[in-house]
Amino acid sequence: MQLSKDHHPTAAYVERLRTVLAQQYPGVTFYVLPVDIVTQILNFGLSAPIDVQFVGPNLDGNRALAERMADEVRNTPGAADVRIQQPFNYPKMTVDVDRTRAETIGLTQKDVATSLLVALSGSFQTTPSFYLDPKSGVSYNIAIQAPQYRMNSLAALESLPVTGTAAAQPASGANGGPGAARPVQVLEILPPSLPEPSWAR
Predict the structure, then answer these.
(1) Is 21 helix (H, G, I), strand (E, B) or coil?
(2) Three-class SS state of 131
(3) 112 vs 187: CA distance, rounded Å
(4) 3-state SS, residue 33
(5) Cβ–Cβ contacts within 10 Å for residue 116, how many?
(6) What is d(CA 104, CA 169) in angstroms, rounded to the nearest whole number?
């Protein structure tokens, strides 16, 4: 979001957005991240100036304790954008890789994971790139990823091309993409409601 030249103080817009978004989208979490380099340095790279972490072998117990503390902090005067940084209710799917078939075309488990990560989350996850605007001095993140509107089915996910540094067939696809000598399916996306096949490892 880029404000116009004669804009009002940014804090006023942020405060208004917090109120309006909470009213119009109940149950959805919104928060404002620091955009200036000074605040980011003062936060030691964290997403908030105050960061509380729970570490322990009991993941569910840690989660319950974090939720209790978050509820208490929300009632503290001056606290804003209180949230748990690692939500547990993200939708998730299982990716099962046929390693035998992948090995025949020179692909590894890491190649499949990296290709999916870049396509779905963007290249910034593996190779961060930046652009510095010479006029404003603002640094922008540059990332490449598959268009989200095309990732609208399990078949689309299974058809993502997979590449590897040691691939026997350059630019081989996960399901026979460009460069593959024949269709070779090396991964299957399993929704949570479906059981894993008997050959899953």
Answers:
(1) helix
(2) strand
(3) 8
(4) coil
(5) 19
(6) 10
Whole-angstrom distance, CA of residue 145 vs CA of residue 175: 19
Residue pair 165/179 in contact (Cβ under 8 Å)? The answer is: no
Question: Position of tokens 């590897």?
Answer: 164
The token duo for 82 is: 């209180």
Q: What is the DSSP letter of 195?
A: P
* Token representation of residue 192: 């949570």
Nearest Cα residue to 18 out of 28, 26, 30: 30
Amino acid letter, 12: A
Question: pLDDT tens digits, residue range 50-66?
Answer: 888 888 898 888 888 88
CA–CA separation, 92 and 107 (whole Å) = 24
Q: Is 189 helix (H, G, I), strand (E, B) or coil?
A: strand
Contacts 24+ apart (CB under 8 A), 43-48: 47/85, 48/81
pTM, full prediction: 0.47
* Radius of gyration over every alpha carbon of the chain, rounded to an integer in angstroms: 22
Predicted pLDDT at 151: 82
Find, among 46, 14, 44, the residue nearest to 31 by Cα: 14
